[in-house]
Amino acid sequence: MFSAEAVQRMTHPAGDGFAERRDGMFEIGDLIVYGSSGVCEVKDITTLRMKGVSEDRLYYLLSPCHRKESKIFTPVDNDKTVMRAVLTREEADTLIESIPDIDELWVSNDKLREEKYKETVRSCDCRDWIKIIKTLYQRKRERLARGKKTTAMDERYLRMAEENLYSELSLVLGVPREDMEDYITQRLTVMAMETAGSCET
Asked: In terms of pTM, does the model score above 0.70?
């Protein structure tokens, strides 16, 4: 449904909310993707006064965009959880245009399937999320054609991948989360029509 072209990072003017990690750090006000918590805003960069915690170690105070009441403290030098800048608008547009070329994620061994899904979701890579979505839509069609229901595991990871992808694209493109799937479908339909038209001329 949805080419894994390398997406080039853009440099943003300070204060626009879209983060590039400069000198190994994000800045207050930056929007970042933090592991399974999704898109978060960097509210502060501070130290913690806690027993057993170095007073010199810096921490981000993060606020998940979909749970404003929640707070997350994580070390600036955290290398266990993925932290990356959200996509730029240009990157989001490029990603959507490349969707038809992104390969599906096939795992022949059922015992390894969930582990692969889990690893792919945790990568926090939008192209990996698209791989899962394409794979699970295809598996769903095949199972329904055989008169079988979608497995609970497939449904769970499909929801996770869609939520991660659509939430980030919604924020970047200014499209409501609930309209994101239709927006992508329309973009791809227009692209297909334009390609067909150019082939006929």
From this structure: yes
